[in-house]
Each structure stands twice: as structure tokens, then as C-alpha cells.
Amino acid sequence: MRHAHQKIIYKHGAHGAPYKLKLMKIKTVGIIVKDKSEAVATTLRTLHDFLVSKSCKILLDTHAEGLLSKDIPVLDRETLGNKSDLAIVIGGDGTFLS
């Protein structure tokens, strides 16, 4: 049985047909914020509560510092990316550039 916080990774074969590669449980979620507006802060708090209810560990990028409790690790984006199973970006125009 697949849970909401698990994802199925697909790979495409020689003829373009997808096949299941593996089932991966998302344990650590990195959250990146693009600004500190009230809308972003509200979304961040809602996302935090959801992820905690799914027993996920949360990491924040340095731009999110101070938007949630002080006991959540704050990391630079490169380290956050290396330690996260999934990264979520809140705010901005939909692009993600390094």
C-alpha cells in the first residue's frame, strides 16, 4: 500500500514505456522561500503542519530563517539540497535558478 508521503519513481524503457523503478519514502523535506511576505509565511506554516503530521523532517533555507520555530535546521541551499529527499519552493515566479 502506498502512502501519501511516498513517491513512485518511473523510468522510461527503450520504447518510451514507463516502468516502476522503486518506491521511495520521503523522510526529509527541504523548504526554500523566495520572499518573506505574509502569504509565504502562511503557506509555510500550513506546509510545516502537514509535513509534521506525516512524520517528515523539515529543513529550511537561509531565506526562511525566523518564519518558523527556532528548532528547525536552517541550511544554505546547496547543503539543503544534498540532505533533502524532496525540495519545495514557496513564492517567486515559478522558476528555480541556481
The structure class reads alpha/beta
The rough form would be described as: globular
Summed over residues and divided by their number, the pLDDT gives a mean of: 80
DSSP helix count?
2
Rg (C-alpha, Å): 15 Å
The portion of residues assigned to helices is 10-25%
Query: Terminal Cα separation, in Å?
Result: 36 Å
Sketch the topology as an H/E string, one letter per element: EEEHEEHE
Strand order of the largest sheet: 5-4-3-6
Main pleated sheet = 4 strands, parallel
Poorly predicted ranges (pLDDT <50, ≥5 residues)? none
Q: What percentage of the residues does DSSP assign to strands (E)? A: 25-35%
Task: Write down how many β-strands occur, each being a DSSP E stretch of 2 or more residues.
Answer: 6
What is the assembly state of the chains in this entry? single chain
Quick description:
This protein is an alpha/beta fold and 98 residues long. 23% of the residues lie in helices and 34% in strands.
Tell me about this structure.
There is one protein chain. The chain is an alpha/beta fold. It is built from two helices and six strands, in the order βββαββαβ. It has helices at residues 38-53, 77-83; strands at residues 6-12, 18-25, 28-33, 57-61, 74-75, 86-90. The strands form two sheets. A four-stranded parallel β-sheet has the order 5-4-3-6. β3 (28-33), α1 (38-53) and β4 (57-61) form a beta-alpha-beta unit.
Key traits:
single chain, 98 residues, alpha/beta, four-stranded parallel sheet, two-stranded antiparallel ribbon, 2 helices, 6 strands, 34% strand, globular
